[in-house]
Amino acid sequence: MLQITRFVVNMIEENTYLLYDETGEAVLIDCGAFYPEEQQAIRNFLTEHRLRLTHLYNTHGHFDHIFGAGFIYKDYGVQIELCADEQFVYEAAAEQMRMFIHRDLPLDLPPVGRYFKDGDILAFGNQKLQV
């Protein structure tokens, strides 16, 4: 059965979602975890529930939704997967941050592992999500 856990993260209070099922496979959606304690909360949840993170999906490439992509890539080797229409937005995330919050904060942009499009199926465990 699909389980969903929400983490409210970063200075903008963005919603990061962790989805998992009985297989132990898990995916993160919009990992905006910026602060070390937010990143640790995600690590702890994965460990305590014996979950294996297999994907990092992003609904879009705004900076507040991708703050955590770097730590996920470094800790778990999971690359971000993003809507193809959002490639430019992802690549311009640092500029967006300067425009919206008038600050330069650390923003680690790992390589994009896959671009998806409307109608694609994103699968993990026994679950299928349609874009």
TrEMBL record:
Cofactor(s) recorded in Swiss-Prot or TrEMBL: Zn(2+)
Keyword presence, Cell wall biogenesis/degradation: no
Alphabetic keyword roster: Hydrolase, Metal-binding, Zinc
InterPro entries hit by this protein: MBL_Glyoxalase_II, Metallo-B-lactamas, RibonucZ/Hydroxyglut_hydro
PANTHER family xref list: HYDROXYACYLGLUTATHIONE HYDROLASE GLOC (PTHR46233)
MF terms (GO), sorted A to Z: hydrolase activity; metal ion binding
One matching Pfam family: Lactamase_B
Name of the protein in question: Metallo-beta-lactamase family protein
Domain Metallo-beta-lactamase, chain residue ranges per copy: 15-98
Translocase listed as a keyword: no
